[in-house]
Model the fold of this input.
Amino acid sequence: MICEEYRSIKPKDLFDNYIEYMVDMLVLCNADTREHIWYVAKYTRILVDTYARLYPRSRMTAEKRYNIVQASKIKDIGKLAIPDVLLDKAGEMSATEMSYYQKHTIKGSQMIRGISGKIGHEYERICYNICLYHHENYDGSGYPYGLKEQKVPIEALFVGLADIYDALVNYKGRRESYTHEEAIFLILDGKCGKLSPKLRECILEARDELEAVKYNGKNI
Done:
């Protein structure tokens, strides 16, 4: 369900159009699928709206939540700078290949920085942070810098959690996907990186709403 507060947000035509263009590029170049992008954005919206309800003093305004959801769509824009032979590799990557692959976070943030001055400061910062830090974990086990706790921007933690949940329940690659309950257990048990106490509470509160999401092919 779309939060009614979003209806009051004024369109940011320039950058919103740019985001949709980048989404099209990700899909066209096989760096990501439209279904994955849709799911991550939908899960991100559920998580940020739940967070705002649970923690009303968090300053998670409707505009900030809108910006985070939009920015989640281009979290992997840096993959456009990664060779297809690496993105399409069927087997496990070597340590060298994985190190290079992980640089998609840095390359994505550089792409966002390249359009500095063309968008509002907060929107740009949120997009930059999500591209660069969405694989960082609260416990410091992520990449590219191994940041931990409050050093990881909250918007990146939201998108990273949405990305992990989607990878567990909707993955159609070389392994079976997990059930919703199995995915929630793995996340809460810290198998995908320890959650912050607030995000742990958030996913517990939103678990039924997350399970109910079904891809409909429409824009979010």
User: Anything to note?
Assistant: The two ends are 11 Å apart (CA to CA).
